[in-house]
Amino acid sequence: MLTERQLLILQVIIDDFIESAQPVGSRAISKKGDIAFSSATIRNVMADLEEMGFLEKTHSSSGRIPSEKGYRYYVDHLVSPQVTEGDKKLINNVIQDGFFEFEQVVQKSAQILSDITNYTSIILGPEVFETKLKQLQILTLSSQTAVAILVTNTGHVEHRSFSIPEEISASDLEKMVNILNDRLHGVPIVRLPEKLNTEIVDLMNKYITDFEKSYDYLKAAFFNDNPVKLYFGGKTNILMQPEFKDIDKIRSFYSMMEKEDEIANLLKDTTNGIKVRIGHENKVDAIKDLSLITATYQLNEEQMGTIALLGPTRMEYKRVVNLLNTLSHEMSDALYMWYKNNE
Amino acid sequence: MLTERQLLILQVIIDDFIESAQPVGSRAISKKGDIAFSSATIRNVMADLEEMGFLEKTHSSSGRIPSEKGYRYYVDHLVSPQVTEGDKKLINNVIQDGFFEFEQVVQKSAQILSDITNYTSIILGPEVFETKLKQLQILTLSSQTAVAILVTNTGHVEHRSFSIPEEISASDLEKMVNILNDRLHGVPIVRLPEKLNTEIVDLMNKYITDFEKSYDYLKAAFFNDNPVKLYFGGKTNILMQPEFKDIDKIRSFYSMMEKEDEIANLLKDTTNGIKVRIGHENKVDAIKDLSLITATYQLNEEQMGTIALLGPTRMEYKRVVNLLNTLSHEMSDALYMWYKNNE
DNA sequence: CATTAGCACTCGAGCAGATGGAGTGCTAAC
DNA sequence: GTTAGCACTCCATCTGCTCGAGTGCTAATG
Questions:
Q1: Nucleotide nearest to A62 (CA to C1')
Q2: B142 to chain A: which residues are within 8 Å by CB?
Q3: Alpha carbon B165 to its chain's center
Q4: B60 near A122, Cβ under 8 Å?
Q5: Greatest CA span in chain B, whole angstroms?
Q6: Residue A5: CB atoms within 10 Å
């Protein structure tokens, strides 16, 4: 257990280091207004804290920097739930200002999150378990080409162009779509493939000659690609952080950022609520010297997506944690309202 | 005018430097198989070439590097139209392999272009002067929300969600869409705003009460945002180039890459065919030490878009010029076929 | 007995000088 | 005209040095 004084010093050191990115010396601390001890005393405390594993030295006579354990303690015990009014306003603006389309809001949120923090934001989702098919439409553009448009009850629109196989006539196509619309309206998107594979196939074969071919086309068009969507904000913000001063680090960062599925997995692996992963607590090598803070947003009890911020371990945890907290709640609320309207 | 020998030496130096990124010395050249002169002779030639402005030294006793004038000469006189069979195949694959949707092809082209060159590719367009409205549809999701879907004859789909103003009834909305579809079918997209503002307004006012409001919504949804689209490939490739070894350069590069409208202007300002801009030939400061190669692709005589590659001035001009040439032709051909089908 | 002043010590950053290699320009010989 | 040879230049690298910031320890202090 830490004494009051150790706690205070630890907090001051971490706060200072988060701001300056420089090792913190005993003298500098003793000069701060709210510290009443001499530098020698502080040196003793620092030595204790180092022994306990909360602090580190970069070399034998340097000032101290927080260890990962130090950050962990800081996050767990010293981050007070202070809400910055300014930040809160910004978030409210994004969320409320014309909630037209969910993706827009997500995109904008990612943007603003990275803008005000100067870290890189990643938003995953939403995984729309409750989204239902509103309409499926196929529009022929020419004798050989057509575009299929799928609309959900949330206003999400997917579309694919495809070539019409020669064996299929326009009237067959029309018939097919009619049947599909009739049968699939209101079916949750996640259950579409299953539904298609069971009931629909039989039905279709009755009415449409050579159905298999066109069906394959349709299936390929909509159900093959990864439904998970990642939104990024401030991908280059990280360049401004002093810890990214050597190229190799930048390279490895960006090459990781390109592996979207890996990032998606990273963000999926989270419990509800806010989670802070510091340095080696991350399982992916490329970010073992960064911190990742994730928060989930949801609708009812159903998890829908994740908001995350990626920055140096020397992160403004206090601010960021509260920011994510606020944003995830706002998003959840907004989603709730949206769904209630579109039920 | 350059002598045969000067030409040869210049070519060898530039080729070597493009490959190695290191100043080229006289000894290294004399050792190459196809050079029959001693290093001393080559030194003399190099001195001449430097005097003429084609070469530079990084310091008084260094090897030579090409000047911008040198590259310019190289591009204008020494780039032979050699087509790499391998590259050509790659391009053909992208273009032909299921030309479903134009945007997909563009996206994929950008990707492959950057992959095989290791530079950053930018594709602008297409500016679809000939694109016509195929269908406009409004789908109500709830009593307050709706999604508008616009489909063109090229299979391009745009959509926007919006709130339905309280004054407007569902039937009015339906009426409006019917009229719009009737009147606007086949109208080129670029002429939509004009058409809307003249004929349609009067017509609508006759049939629909309080038309202005809903019309404003519709207009805002589709015609306010920038119609120019940029596709990037390999934004991070440039990090691998040895000239990007200091952070400030990386920073300025990425901050430029974020100004999409500036880049769009850069790419718009081009005549038909291939254009190489070397270093200071670029008007934008941030890329004054890079080279930008642009090629247009088109349909009939109408310019439609631009493909570009951005890399260090030390670029593989030979390869890249031919690559862009091939790709732009392939894209033009593909576009031509596509339009013919959808006429 | 906790706190603090004082001092010796350590380490890194930054600068000056030495060294060696790669490359040039010039001159004289072929 | 071409080339061998040589003096010269500059950079990159290494070494040694100093200086300042910071520590740990000890002894004095309240």
A1: D22
A2: 341-343
A3: 40
A4: no
A5: 90
A6: 16
Query: Are the beta carbons of B321 and B77 closer than 8 angstroms?
Result: no
Number of alpha carbons in the 13 Å side-chain half-sphere of residue A87: 19
Higher model confidence: residue B161 or residue B183? B183
**What's the pLDDT score for residue A211?**
60
Task: Kindly state the tokens that stand for B275.
Answer: 């254009």
**Cβ <8 Å between A147 and B139:** no
3-state secondary structure A192-213: HHHHHHHHHHHHHHHHCCCHHH
Q: A107: pLDDT confidence band, cut at 50, 70 and 90? A: confident
Q: Find and list the nucleotides of strand C having atoms within 7 Å of a protein beta carbon.
A: 3-6, 9-12, 21-27
Per-residue pLDDT band for B210 (boundaries 50, 70, 90) equals: low
Q: pTM score, two decimals? A: 0.86
Confidence check: pLDDT of B99 > 60: no
pLDDT beyond 60 at A135: yes
Residue B147's pLDDT is: 83
Cβ pair B155:A145 closer than 8 A: yes
In the 48-107 segment of chain B, residues within 7 Å (Cβ) of strand C are 50, 57, 61-64
Closest by Cα among B30, B38, B28 to B62? B28
Q: Dump pLDDT digits (tens) for A89-102.
A: 888 877 765 555 67
Nearest-Å Rg of the Cα atoms of chain B is 26
SS3 state at B105 = helix
- From CA A271, how far away is CA A267, in angstroms rounded? 10
Other beta carbons within 10 Å of A107: 16
Using a CB-CB cut-off of 8 Å, the residues of chain B touching A337 are none
Please name the member of B100, B149, B247 whose beta carbon is closest to the beta carbon of A161. Answer: B100
